[in-house]
Structures are given as structure tokens and as C-alpha cells.
Amino acid sequence: MSKINVDNVIKVLNNGINYLLKIQTQWRVMARFFTDVKDIVCDSLTKNIESLSKNIEAEMPRNLILQEAVQATCYCIQVSNSANIYSITSRKYIVPELSAVGEEFALTQEEAKKRQSSIDKRLRSIMDEIDGFVKEKQEEYRARAKDRMDMYAKNLIKALPENTKKNRK
Q1: In the prediction, which pLDDT does 4 show?
Q2: Which of 4, 89, 109, 167 is most buried when burial is the number of CB atoms within 10 A of its CB?
Q3: Closest C-alpha among 73, 90, 93 to residue 34
Q4: Residue-range definition of the domain harbouring residue 139
Q5: Could you tell me where the DSSP H helices lie in 90-108?
């Protein structure tokens, strides 16, 4: 093997390692994001449930207890919606791209240079698609959340004792 070929192989391997490091960094960022989400949800939901339990034990008014129960339900719905967005995004956009990474390492340096432009365009396209998808889901979930909250509010009013309902009017 000539020195030129060895140098080219080393350059290609270095580029491959750099791409793998970028992927590793993004995975760490994503893992940290989900750890943060878990911590926030667990903290908020735990405090809400503890408060709900204390209010039940203290025989607080039903409207306060039911209000906290609805709030806990809303936390769960938000987590479910976020997990759904992540799951679809991962399955539809991220995993297929990661699956194709191995093929990129098999390219020659010349082939890689030719493909770089199309890879960059594909990345921009995917980012635009993900952005549109997330915005679409946000609107869908926002509308659904409003409908659910209206339903929960109506059910809450039905569940309240008559004297509490009169005081609210």
C-alpha cells in the first residue's frame, strides 16, 4: 500500500470517527434532555400527588381535591404527548438516518465528497419536516387539551356537592 493510500484511509477513518463523535454527543444531549424531563415530571407529579393525598386525609373540600386530581391528569397527558412526539420523530426520521450511517463509511473519498451536498440537503429537509411535524402535533395537542380540560371542568362541577356549586355561581 502506498503512502498516499494510507494517508487517504487515515483521513477517511478520522472523518468517520468525527461523525461518530457528533452522533455520540447528540445522543448524550438527548439522554440528558429526557433525564431532565423525567426529573421535572417526577418532581411536579410527586408534589401534586402528595398534596392530593394530604388533602384527602385532611378531608379538604372536594373541589380542591378534584382540582389537584385534574392537574395530575394534565401532567400525565403532557408527558404522554411529549413521548408520542419523540417516538414518532425517532421512528420516522432519526432511526432511518442512523441506519444509513454505516453505508456512508463504505464510500470512497471521492464518493463521499459527491454525497456531502446531498447529505446536507437531506439533513435540512429532515429538520424542516421535524419542525413542521412538531408544530402540527403541538396544535393538535393544544386543541385536544382544551377539549379535555372543558370536559374535566364539567365533570368536576358535576362531582361537587350542591352547596359548593351554588357558592361558585
Answers
A1: 65
A2: 89
A3: 90
A4: 3-168
A5: 95-99, 101-105
Record the cell numbers describing residue 10, joined without a space: 487515515
**pLDDT more than 90, % of the chain:** 8
Q: Please list, in sequence order, all residues whose beta carbon lies within 8 angstroms of the beta carbon of residue 63, skipping any fewer than 6 positions away.
A: 156, 160, 164, 168
Question: 117-133: string of b/e by CB count within 10 Å (b at 16+)?
Answer: eeeeeeeeebeeebeee
Environment class of residue 110 by beta-carbon count within 10 Å: exposed (0-12), middle (13-18) or buried (19+)?
A: exposed
The whole-model pTM stands at 0.60
Among 39-48, 59-68, 98-107, the range scoring the smallest mean pLDDT is 98-107
Which of 31, 27, 37 shows the shortest CA–CA distance to 80? Answer: 37
Q: Chain-wide mean pLDDT for the chain?
A: 79
Predicted pLDDT of residue 165: 46
